[in-house]
Amino acid sequence: MRVDDDYLEAVLDLAQRIPPGRVMTYGTIAEFVGDQLVADGGRRRGGPRQVGQVLARAGGGVPWWRVVNAAGSPPASNLSRALTELQREHTPLVAAGLRVDLTAALWWPDSD
């Protein structure tokens, strides 16, 4: 599935803004970006899968490890590196250190 440049840039910009030690889920990024695009006069598009696609294909320059699934798990394809980065940033983890504690670490823009 192809995503347009506006969507790609909005996802990467938001991922870049997530503070160290905090995370967003693919779904919360999709929700925020969708709302932002509508507010800017565009149409709502994309969902969690498209956010993952953007990060997998173009997210090398942003802290992609700060984006997790709805259960708090980092991407399985880069699990070891993601967990290392999350631990380095003192992100709260649960499940023997394999998942992010979303209750403690979930971030929403304008929440800080």
What's this, in brief?
The chain has 112 residues and is mainly α.
Overall pLDDT:
93
User: In what order do the strands lie side by side in the largest sheet?
Assistant: 1-2
Q: Report strand %.
A: 5-15%
Shape: globular
Number of helices: 5
How many whole angstroms does the radius of gyration measure? Answer: 13 Å
Tell me what you see in this structure.
Helix 1 (5-17) crosses helix 2. The mean pLDDT is 93. Helix content is 46%, strand content 7%. It has helices at residues 5-17, 26-39, 48-58, 79-88, 102-105; strands at residues 24-25, 67-68, 93-94, 99-100. The strands form two sheets. It has a two-stranded parallel sheet with strand order 1-2. The termini are far apart. The chain has 112 residues and is mainly alpha-helical. It has five helices and four strands; from the N terminus they run αβααβαββα.
SSE map:
Layout: H1 5-17, E1 24-25, H2 26-39, H3 48-58, E2 67-68, H4 79-88, E3 93-94, E4 99-100, H5 102-105
Parallel strand pairs: 1-2
Antiparallel strand pairs: 3-4
Helix pairs in contact: 1-2, 2-3
Jot down its keywords.
single chain; 112 residues; mainly alpha; 4 strands; 7% strand
